[in-house]
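tmp note - Maleylacetoacetate isomerase
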Amino acid sequence: PILYSYFRSSCSWRVRIALALKGISYDLVPVNLLKDGGQQFSAEFKAVNPMQQVPALKIDGITLSQSLAIIHYLEDTRPNPRLLPQDLKKRAQVRMIADHIVSGIQPLQNLSILKQMGEKKTEWAQNCIASGFQALEQILQHTAGRYSVGDEVSMADLCLVPQVANAERFKVDMRPYPTITRINKALLELEAFKVSHPSRQPDTPAELRA
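out:
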């Protein structure tokens, strides 16, 4: 497998966690979203992903983009360990939390949006994340065990940790979200979350390395 990734991309990080959890080795091709006016806009990368976004994964003779589509494929083809619970109610909760982050929070504070916000970009990102986290905190109070849904790591957790990292980067006050904070801390102790961390990627700048 070949993963096109950017060290700081939260969408890429979700996929790196899934690959690490499932023990899938891969070659990494860095795509720097800031260099050369954005390497994702090159003709070469557009041929890989017409949406000109990371991540993209070449695997089993196909090329997939969109982090959740990639994770679902990995789950379907390499089901151990499971990232979707067998219990249908828990499975629905996992998908709900993942969608809440992937559709309802992250795109609103994505690089392409922030560029358009100019000087207000930090304030905009803080407001989008805080609004989403208020709802997420409430949801997790009903679903969480050790992790987002019960005591098993799930697709919801793969979305939560990178989003908390975004929140910290934009200096969002995390004190109102004790459940999110607790789950994030527990997940960051797991090896798959450590090795996939933005501070430990081949394309991480020296000053940001762990």
